[in-house]
Amino acid sequence: TVFAAENWICLLMVWVLLKVVHELGHAVACMRFGGRVTRCGLMFIMFSPVAWVDVTSAWNFRSRWQRIAVSGAGMYIEFLIAGLAAICWGNTLDPVWSTITRNVVISASFTTLVFNLNFLMRFDGYYMLSDALDYQNLYQTGQQYIDYVRRRYLLGMNASPPADEGIQRWIACVYGVSSLIWRILFSLGILIAAAHFFRGAGIILAVFSGLVWFGLPLARFALTVVYGTATGQPDRRRISLITASAIAAGSLIMLLPWPGRTVAH
Predict the structure, then answer these.
(1) Which side of the chain, N or C, has fewer Cβ within a 10 Å radius?
(2) How far is Cα 80 from Cα 21, in angstroms, rounded to an integer?
(3) E strands, the chain, where?
């Protein structure tokens, strides 16, 4: 019932207010350690309003634990609110108040864990992880490894890996692959959820977003295969072999008998 049509407005209002409080938590923590907050505003992600504050001055803090505290301050506040709302939810019989507190609990706990604490997305959890590992360019380096693997092993072109060595190289490689898999699964999940919950409008939104998220990268990859790049031409034979192998493996997996499969006649 959380995603029922009659609950959308209440859920959206609760979510927006929680994100405003979340960002105020970042701002207060930053100023508490001597930083400055010079800007704040509102942006839209998937047509949903999201508040933000500029706490980049925290990057100059010498203590990584102060930077981690600033990154996690919004979640501290949301978890506190979620706990208080859970107490109210469990002690009320009023249906309106029960709906509001339920929305607060879900928005301030589950969604915060999935998005803000998720270190595979460039939100609070990512910055806390990069500070804990003392690896400030973890995301960018991980993307460079993905690009290196794509050019070297898929396209068969000359490419050099990032300059990191030792344990940092493995950390960046694992992070790059993990974040790529997460982005694909998350994008597919968003498209399926939008098409399911928002019906006609959701299908249009899902098609548009799918073209932007998947269509454009595939089109750029196709152009690279056909025309090459300024640094060289791809190995089309290698690409054809890898593509055929992937299609064959996928087809074989689809044909395997899965437990619980239902066949309609």
Answers:
(1) C
(2) 11
(3) 40-45, 48-53
